Amino acid sequence: MIHPTAIIEKGAKLDDTVEVGAYAIISGATKIDSGCRIGAHAQLCGNLEIGKNNRIGPAAIIGGDPQDLTFDRNLESGVRIGSGNDLREQVTVHRSASDGGWTEIGNNNCLMAGSHVGHDVTIGNQNVIANNCLLAGHVCIANHTFLGGGAGFHQFIKVGELSITQGNSAISKDIPPYCIASQLNNLAGLNVVGMRRAGIDQETRSEIKRAYLEAFRSSLPLGLALKKIQEQSWGEAARHFIDALANPSRKGICFPRTKRQSS
Fold this sequence. Notes:
The protein is built from 4 helices and 27 strands. The protein is an alpha/beta fold. The strands form 3 sheets. It has a 10-stranded mixed beta sheet with strand order 3-6-9-12-15-18-21-24-26-27, with no helix packed on it. The radius of gyration is 20 Å and the shape is elongated. It starts with 6 loop residues before the first strand and ends in a 17-residue tail after the last helix.
C-alpha cells in the first residue's frame, strides 16, 4: 500500500488501509484515517488531521506555510480535512496563520486541479471548486456551492450556500446564499436550478425570489429595504438569505449592477 520511494517521517500515524504513491512525503505530525489515497509526489506537511476516504492527488501540497510575509513559522497551526474529499493534482492548502488555528475542509468536497486554499479558510460540505480557483486567507465557503474555474476570492469574504460563481470572476465581497455571482462582484440572479436540484420546493423558491427582488430591485437603499423586509414573516430559507444580507463580512455584499449600493 505504501510505495517504497515514499518518505513517511517517524511519528506520522497512517491507518493500515492508506495507500501512498511514489515519492510522496508525509510529515511526522500527520494523522490519516482509513481508506485514503495519497498520490505520487504529494507532500503532506506539518500538523494535519485527515479523515476517512479522502483522495489527495499527485503533486498536491497540503499544510504548507501561509503566503504571508509577516508569518512566524514557529507558530503551531494546521489543516483539518473531513471525509470523502477529492483534492486533485497540484492542489495547495495552507495551514492557519494563527497560533493554534486551523484551515478546515469539511466533507465530500471536490477541489479540482490547481486550486488553492489559503490560510484560515473554512470550507463546508459538498462544494465543487473548479480548476485554478484561488481562495485567499480567511474566506468562508458554506455548503453546496460551485466556484467556476479561475475565479479569485478576496480574503475575509463569505460565499453563501447553493451559490454559483462564474469562471474567471473576481470576488471581493460576500456572495449571498442561493445567488449567481459573475465578473467583478456582480450578482446575476438566483441559482434556481441549483435550488431545485437541492430539493427546495416551488413555494420556498418563490419566497426567496421575492426577498431578492425586495432587497435588490427596490428604489430604496439596501439598509432601508432590509428594515422593511425584516418586518415581514418569512420561511427558514428566505430568512437565511435575509440574515446574510443583514450581517455581511466587513467587505460588504455583491450587488446586481442595476442596484444602488449605498445603505
